[in-house]
Design goal:
The complex is a heterodimer of chains A (about 160) and B (about 270). By secondary structure, chain A is of the alpha/beta class. Chain A has helices at about 5-30, 135-160; strands at about 40-45, 55-60, 65-75, 80-85, 95-100, 110-115, 125-130, 130. Chain B is an all-alpha fold. Classes of the chains: A alpha/beta (about 160), B mainly alpha (about 270).
Amino acid sequence: MNRSTIDLWVGVFVAAGLAALLFLALKVGNLASFSTSQAYQVYAKFANIGGLKVRAPIKSAGVVVGRVADIRFDNESYEAIVAMNLDAAYQFPRDTTAKILTSGLLGEQYVGLEAGGDGVMLKSGDRLRLTQSAVVLENLISQFLFSKAAEGKDAPKDAAK
Amino acid sequence: MILGNLVAALRARLEALGGTVTSAVWRLGFAARFLAYLVMHSGTAFRRFRLTTAEIYFAGVLSLIIILVSGLFVGMVLALQGYTTLQRYGAAESLGVLVALSLVRELGPVVAGLLFASRAGSAITAEIGLMKTTEQLSAMEMMAVDPIARVVAPRFWGGVISMPLLAALFSAMGVFGGYLIGVQLIGVDAGAFWSQMQAAVDLREDILNGVIKSVVFGIAVTWISVFEGYDAPPTAEGVSRATTRTVVTSSLAILALDFILTALMFTGGNGK
């Protein structure tokens, strides 16, 4: 095997290896899908975020418009503060509502935005005033059971009357 | 009398235990000094880069076939196995996530590392061991050529450069194999396959950590290989033992390091 053949093959090998890395970064990973450089950050307070994670999608009308940047706990109001990076291409009114929703029955949780009617748009650093917390299954079930129990108490009274 | 025998036997056992531990620690220290000396005398390997190029050819290019074929088949098997489990929960679209995450985080670096240890590591040990046995290394020293700088360092750097590239090729090939089986054969939606994969695989968290793993495995395997070769007793039996030990020690080192790295990378912080 002469030198130039070895050099050629090593060149091919290194190029293929770097191409594989690039493939992993671009096609498998999310390098190109959403750049945070042209994004603006807004905040929202939630009484309960359920299982929301950092990097969870933010959707409006089902379209991904941003990602959750940070989740903190507010020591004063005892609420969760969620920082959201929104793509600068999408502008929302100032009275937009943020809800924590679940995709499907067992799916991941995401933040859903519903645009309001205000003429002034959100800008970086603003806070969303209208929020709706995640649905906690235990609370839902206990509410359901309580209402069932209340119905059961009322029913005989009605019959007696 | 009986008590005296008992004490003597106990003493012999303890001495044997102490001797084993001392020689193991001494060998570890010798290996560490060997690595330090090797890194400090790597100038030749980079100034005359052609020496290292030849070793990249030997360790990397010649390992390509086994790495690519194994990667393809591992990806295809992952897709088949993953599909049967996922479709039971109606989550067959997540097949791309399963294949990509298991390859990029774990299987790529680990399986490529194991293959690299048995394909290239054993050959490096045998080569250096045989050079020592046939007194080529001593002959170099006689000619005032440092055998570590001339023979060992290019092999070390060749392996360290090759290993991450091989692991990346393994992962990429595995994802392609998963795509072949999942999308082309079984019929999972191609859009869901790629988009869910892209949504779940993070560049820094998953891909970069996988690359870091492969670099660490590359250093560990090549270090063990060159050290075992250099330290091999200069006999036919010694070289064969050293070659076996390279494969066994490297494989165990890869698995142990993988556990430590995974624990550090993916469960650190607040349990995310």
